[in-house]
Amino acid sequence: MKYVHLFAVAFLAACASHPPAPVLERTVASTETTASRPGTPVPVGGDWYTVKKGDTLYSIALEHGRDYKDVAAWNNIDNPNRIRVGQQLRVSPPEGEEPIAVAKPIQMDAAPAAAKPPAGANTDSFKREPKGGVVAYSDDALARMREPAQQKPAEKPAEKQPPVAEKAPPPAGEDAVDWTWPAPGKTVAGYSESGPAINKGIDIAGKAGDPVYAAAAGKVVYVGSGLRGYGNLVIVRHNASYLSAYAHNSKILVKETQTVAKGQKIAEIGSSDADQAGLHFEIRRLGKPVDPLNYLPAR
């Protein structure tokens, strides 16, 4: 018994000197990635925008030619004034939400195919009989063969018509905007993309209280003073491509979502956020400023 007891003690001591092997927990790697989780925006091309310091939802919408309410809805934003630097915002509609009609070139009707002559018939193009010109011999047939063949009068060659210039296809629906001047005053500052005085539109002189007109028919998509440097601002969306902006107003006469007609009075000239009274007017195509003088009629 004594030896058995000693053997048991030695065995237990040996076991204590070797800790048990660690248990490896094998798990299956998850195939889900951050990009595939619902609710996680994945930037794709120009569909997304990363918020920078100084941005507002209104300025982001204007820069991309969108209604700020649409941008808020696409990003589940309840308060347009609460966005954060680094936030990724969708700035184009989700697939299938806002289809834009594409003007297709007019297809001219193809010329009708020439009617196929009935089998066995002779025409100017199809000579079916007699194929070999074999005629039974007779005195009358011999006499007819000796007669001079009747010559057909030579056809007068068709006069060559001068080439007709192809008519340019009508402008696509997105470009069919009928513009007019938004104010009667004189242009005092023109559009400039570079240089010390960058101007994204034109400045039109006027006195406080002078009328501001909608430059084209459309829908008011913004009224307010949320864009720094524009003062009291009205933005009108004319179609899928064009917006117009009217800044520094003293009084605004329209509301958001209101439909306006070309030439309708929408505001009064002021000097909000400006050194002197006047109208700052912009036209934006697909969110990018363009020179209004290229669109407004000459005067």
Give a description of the structure:
This protein has 299 residues and is of the alpha+beta class. The chain is built from four helices and 13 strands. Strands 3, 4, 6, 7, 8, 10, 12 and 13 form an eight-stranded antiparallel sheet that branches. Strands 5-11-9 form a three-stranded antiparallel sheet, with no helix packed on it. A hairpin with a 2-residue loop joins β12 and β13. The longest helix has 15 residues. About 17% of the residues have low confidence.
What characteristics describe this protein?
299 residues; alpha+beta; three-stranded antiparallel sheet; 13 strands
Structural class: alpha+beta
Radius of gyration: 40 Å
Strand-residue fraction?
Answer: 15-25%
Question: So how many helices?
Answer: 4
- Write down the overall geometry: elongated
Helix content: 10-25%
Q: Mind summarizing the main beta sheet? A: 8 strands, antiparallel
Put the structure in a nutshell.
With 299 residues, the protein is α+β, with helices and mostly antiparallel strands.
Blueprint (SSEs and pairs):
Blueprint: H1 2-16, E1 48-50, H2 57-63, H3 68-74, E2 88-90, H4 139-146, E3 187-189, E4 202-205, E5 211-213, E6 218-224, E7 233-237, E8 242-247, E9 249-252, E10 259-260, E11 265-269, E12 278-285, E13 288-290
Antiparallel strand pairs: 1-2, 3-4, 4-12, 5-11, 6-7, 6-10, 7-8, 8-12, 9-11, 12-13
